[in-house]
Design goal:
This protein is an alpha+beta fold and 136 residues long. Helix content is 34%, strand content 20%. The chain contains two helices and five strands. Strand 1 and strand 2 form a beta hairpin.
């Protein structure tokens, strides 16, 4: 009986983590398939390459059209969609800040030959001293 106990414990120690990781992978796969099948026009998504866009057309079986900029629609594999993201909501404070930043000032007029001098480029790179080989 004791001869059988050691191999049985060894099998349990190896088999339990393997079964648990397989269950976790199946759950993740099912969640990803649910996400890809639930995509609809208007959803904000992020692709596996990190590109954000809005779903324009989800009628294809294997492909999906994503609008990445106004008027720019690209076709992607459904498998390339990593996750849905929340749309960016602009608050009143954000729009007020943007209005303040876009104030245009009068340009100053510089007359030709008014003493404007071209500056020489300055270098800020520092060179490391050479390594000495062979010294300890």
């Amino acid at each position: 009986m004791q001869q059988l106990l050691l191999p049985l414990l060894l099998v349990l120690v190896l088999a339990v983590p393997l079964v648990m990781s397989t269950r976790k992978q199946k759950k993740q796969q099912a969640a990803q398939q649910d996400l890809q099948s639930s995509l609809a026009p208007g959803d904000r998504v992020m692709t596996t390459s990190g590109l954000y866009g809005t779903v324009a057309d989800a009628s294809g079986d294997n492909t999906i059209d994503i609008e990445i900029a106004p008027g720019v629609v690209t076709t992607w594999l459904r498998l390339a969609v990593r996750e849905k993201v929340e749309p960016v909501v602009e608050t009143d404070e954000d729009s007020a800040d943007e209005v303040e930043e876009t104030v245009v000032e009068e340009p100053s007029i510089i007359e030709p030959g008014a003493g404007v001098k071209a500056e020489e480029p300055q270098t800020t790179a520092q060179v490391a001293p050479p390594l000495e080989h062979g010294k300890k």
